Amino acid sequence: MSRRMLLERVVTLLAMCLCAGVAIASYPVRPIRLIVPFAPGGGTDFVARLLGPQLGLALGQPIVVDNRAGASGNIGTQLAARAPADGYTLLVVASSHATGVSLYRHLPYDPIKDFSPISNLVANYFLLTVHPSSPAKSVRELVALAKSKKAGITYASAGTGQGSHLGMELLKSLAGFDAVHVPYNGIGPAATALLSAQVDVALLTPPATVPLMRAGKLRVLATTGLKRLALAPEIPTVAESGYPGYEVNNWLGLLAPAGTPSEVITRISHETARSLKHHEVTERLAAAGTEAVGSTPEEFAAFLQAEITKWAKVIKQSGAKVD
Fold first, then answer.
1. Exposure string (b/e) for 99-115, b if CB count within 10 Å is 16 or more?
2. Which site among 84, 149, 190, 312 is 20 to 30 Å from 164 CA-CA?
3. Per-residue pLDDT tens over the stretch 166-184
C-alpha cells in the first residue's frame, strides 16, 4: 500500500469518527420508536405510554409507541433485536424476558447478547390470595393446609410460564408443599376462578385485588415484594411471613439493540430516571400498585442476569415449558 493511499484511509477514518461523534452529540434528531411487544391496554403498554411523553420532552423528540404483540412478546422483541443500533429503536420488556430463555426450546434472539440494557423501569408485585371461605389466614396456615392434603392444594395462574405460575412454584420449593397448577388465559380468568372458589389460591395483581379484599370477597395473605405495598400497607410480605428472601417481581425494563453507542445509552438512562420521578408518573404508577424504580445501565444488566439465573432454577425444578 502506497503512503498516499494509507494517508487517504486514515483521513477517511478520522472523518467517520468525527461524524459519528457529532451524531451522538446531537442525538436525537428525529422521533424515537418505543416497541412494546404486547397488545395495547395491558400493563406494559400502560407504563410505556405513561413514560413516553415525559421521556420525549426530556430528549427533545417524540417517543412513538409501537405495539408489536404476538408469541408472548417474542415477535416484538425479535424486531427490536434486529433494528439498527442507533438509539432510535427502544424496547420495553417484562420479566418474561428473563424467563423465556429457560421456557422456550428456541428463542429467535439472545436476551443478553442481542440487547444493550438501559434502565429498570418499574416493579410490580403480586398478592397471595385465597377465597374468604379458606381456613388459611396467613402464609404459614396456607402451607400447613397444603401439607395436610394428600394431593396438595390447587392454584390458578395467568398461564404457564407467567409470573403468577412461577411465583407459586418458587413458594412450593421454599416451603416444601404440593400444589396442582391450573393455568388460565390471563389474570382476569384466574381471579374469577378464585372468586368462585374453584381453586384454593392464586397470585393476583393489586389494583383489582385490593378493592375485592376490602369488600370481603377475597382474602389477601401476603405480597410478593420485599417490602409492603404503599397501596395496602396492612398486607405483610411473604418474606416477613416466614420465608425470607422470597420475592416475585413482575418488573419492566428498557433495552436497546446491542451495539447502541454507550453515550446514547447513558443519556437515555439518565433521562429515564428523571422521567420516572415526575410527579404525574409516580402518582399514576402508585395508583396502579406499581413502583417506579430506575437504574443505571450497569445495574440493570446485573439485575437482568440475576433474574435469568434465579428463574432458570425454578423452571427446571417445575418442568415448565412453553412451545
1. bbbbbbeebebebeebb
2. 149
3. 999 999 999 999 999 999 9
